């Protein structure tokens, strides 16, 4: 007998977030997505992206559409919010390629999206809840799709995110406005929920940030040429011991992307 498809939830899955948002807050994540996932969006027949939990104002969804369309002109964005009042407030900002819907982690769309971005959504959840949310969201992705989940500060100067495919987590990206950075471990306060409580001795992410700081200190002479050149030299040195996956063109943006497997939390 054929298995039954379970009915959709009768109410959105998840809890209401604080909704804090600011224009341009997610620019670093958006630009990375456009660079890393733009080709997949261009190839898709219907390149749908979801801004999940966009907050009290729709700025991040509006900006995501603009940035994705620099890489994939046919991209469409659906902003999904669990707070129905926020959805109603956002709808006047709808336009060609941009709509808003009431929902949560169930991602209530008839078609599977090629991208789900969830920024500053899981911060309020328990660490133990993250894996189930990731699994649920990844199950909603179209083939070749990407989930990007992470945390940033209020004006987007410091940001860390995890990129996941249908099979699970792939990479972790650290991004910063370099002029405001004293040392790379300043990014620790913006680690995603899956990692933030693991920044303790004996955990891989702690070792990574320790080595990042050491390489930053060793690259101090390059500060004479600017923070960007110091960062590039730092990341180049990191590649000797850590699986850095991107190239200097991304390092110049104040980014570095590392394989998730190298930072996976230890059990217990």
Topology:
Blueprint: H1 27-43, E1 48-52, H2 59-71, E2 76-81, H3 84-90, E3 98-102, E4 115-119, H4 127-139, E5 146-152, E6 158-165, E7 168-176, H5 193-196, H6 204-218, H7 227-238, H8 248-251, E8 255-259, H9 260-263
Parallel strand pairs: 1-2, 1-4, 2-3, 4-5
Antiparallel strand pairs: 5-6, 6-7, 7-8
Keywords: Methyltransferase, Transferase
InterPro entries: SAM-dependent_MTases_sf
GO molecular function, one term: methyltransferase activity
Notes on the protein architecture:
- The chain is of the alpha/beta class and about 270 residues long.
- It has a domain at about 25-175 and about 245-260: Vaccinia Virus protein VP39 (Rossmann fold, 3-Layer(aba) Sandwich), CATH 3.40.50.150.
- It is about 35% helix and about 20% strand.
- It is built from nine helices and eight strands.
- It has helices spanning about 25-45, 60-70, 85-90, 125-140, 195, 205-220, 225-240, 250, 260-265; strands at about 50, 75-80, 100, 115-120, 145-150, 160-165, 170-175, 255-260.
- Helix 1 packs across helix 2 (about 60-70) and helix 6 (about 205-220) crosses helix 7.
- The model is unreliable at about 1-5 (pLDDT under 50).
């Amino acid at each position: 007998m054929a298995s039954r498809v379970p009915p959709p939830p009768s109410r959105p899955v998840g809890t209401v977030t604080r909704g804090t948002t600011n224009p341009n807050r997610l620019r670093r994540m958006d630009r990375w997505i456009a660079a890393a996932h733009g080709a997949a969006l261009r190839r898709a027949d219907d390149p749908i992206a979801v801004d999940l939990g966009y907050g009290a104002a729709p700025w991040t969804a509006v900006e995501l559409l603009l940035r994705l369309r620099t890489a994939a002109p046919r991209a469409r964005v659906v902003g999904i919010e669990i707070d129905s009042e926020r959805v109603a407030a956002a709808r006047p900002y709808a336009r060609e390629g941009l709509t808003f819907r009431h929902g949560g982690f169930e991602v209530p769309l008839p078609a599977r999206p090629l991208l789900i971005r969830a920024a500053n959504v899981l911060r309020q959840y328990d660490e133990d809840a993250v894996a189930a949310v990731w699994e649920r969201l990844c199950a909603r992705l179209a083939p070749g799709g990407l989930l990007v989940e992470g945390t940033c500060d209020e004006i987007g100067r410091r940001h860390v995110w995890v990129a996941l495919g249908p099979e699970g987590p792939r990479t972790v990206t650290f991004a910063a406005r370099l002029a405001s950075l004293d040392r790379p471990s300043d990014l620790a306060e913006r680690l995603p929920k899956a990692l933030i409580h693991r920044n303790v001795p004996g955990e891989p992410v702690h070792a990574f940030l320790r080595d990042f700081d050491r390489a930053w200190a060793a690259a101090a002479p390059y500060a004479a040429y600017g923070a960007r050149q110091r960062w590039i030299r730092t990341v180049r040195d990191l590649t000797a011991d850590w699986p850095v996956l991107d190239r200097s063109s991304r390092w110049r943006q104040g980014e570095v992307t590392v394989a998730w497997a190298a930072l996976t939390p230890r059990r217990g």
